[in-house]
Design a protein that fits this description.
The chain has about 220 residues and is mainly beta. It has two helices and ten strands.
């Protein structure tokens, strides 16, 4: 089995990446398939990895909007209008990041299963359309909220050979079992793309195995 491993020296920092989209495509291979987006942040390239299926194969649930207007506590409009690059954000009870279950970001009950691939409405088809539009829009800006990584120690096949990037673009709480260590509050991931004229696309993702009832540490208070 092909696996991604995390060296002991690797550091993952939660935060917000702002930049311009230069390319994107599905990477269906490996232990955890992703849709990968290349972002230029003031001359520094990043690879944004959006899960299209979980490691254990569980279903992906998503909510997306082509006309997202909630500025969130991050102040996404200001961030996308500001300088490009990665900004660390604190998590936890006094955290600065997004929280699917506490911030009223979108109607949580409207998250729906979305297929990884195949025909029709798939995660790859959804992102392909937005990425191509952003590539053709010189004013388009992306904001990816998630965990920054900067290591090239991976055995996982990549769509783009770049060890610097942002991943965990999904809810980071309500996990059980081997993913319980990921749990936190005010530290969820999401993707936003603002186009010329101000129209904003937003994508929020979680896995079917994650519960939407969590305590102040992001741990489940009831099973899924």
């Amino acid at each position: 089995m092909i696996e991604r491993f995390r060296p002991a020296t690797s550091k993952y920092v939660y935060g917000a990446l702002v930049g311009r989209i230069t390319d994107g495509k599905e990477n269906p291979d490996g232990n955890s398939p992703h849709y990968e987006i290349l972002v230029d942040a003031a001359g520094t390239p990043y690879r944004v990895a959006v899960n299209i299926r979980s490691v254990e194969g569980s279903e992906v649930l998503a909510y997306n909007s082509n006309h997202y207007t909630n500025d969130t506590k991050l102040g996404i409009s200001g961030r996308m209008s500001g300088s490009h690059g990665f900004t660390p954000l604190a998590t936890g009870k006094q955290g600065e990041g997004l929280d699917y279950l506490r911030d009223d970001l979108f109607p949580l009950d409207q998250m729906r299963p979305i297929a990884a691939d195949g025909k029709g409405s798939t995660m790859s088809a959804l992102l392909d359309g937005q990425i191509q539009r952003a590539k053709n829009d010189k004013q388009a800006v992306v904001l990816a909220v998630g965990d920054k990584f900067d290591d090239y120690a991976t055995r996982e096949p990549l769509a783009f050979s770049l060890g610097r990037g942002v991943h965990d673009i999904h809810m980071m709480q309500g996990n059980s079992g081997k993913f319980a260590d990921d749990n936190r509050i005010n530290g969820d991931g999401a993707l936003f793309i603002r186009f010329a004229g101000g129209e904003t696309f937003a994508l929020f993702v979680r896995f079917a195995t994650q519960t939407t009832k969590t305590d102040d540490n992001g741990n489940p208070v009831q099973p899924v």
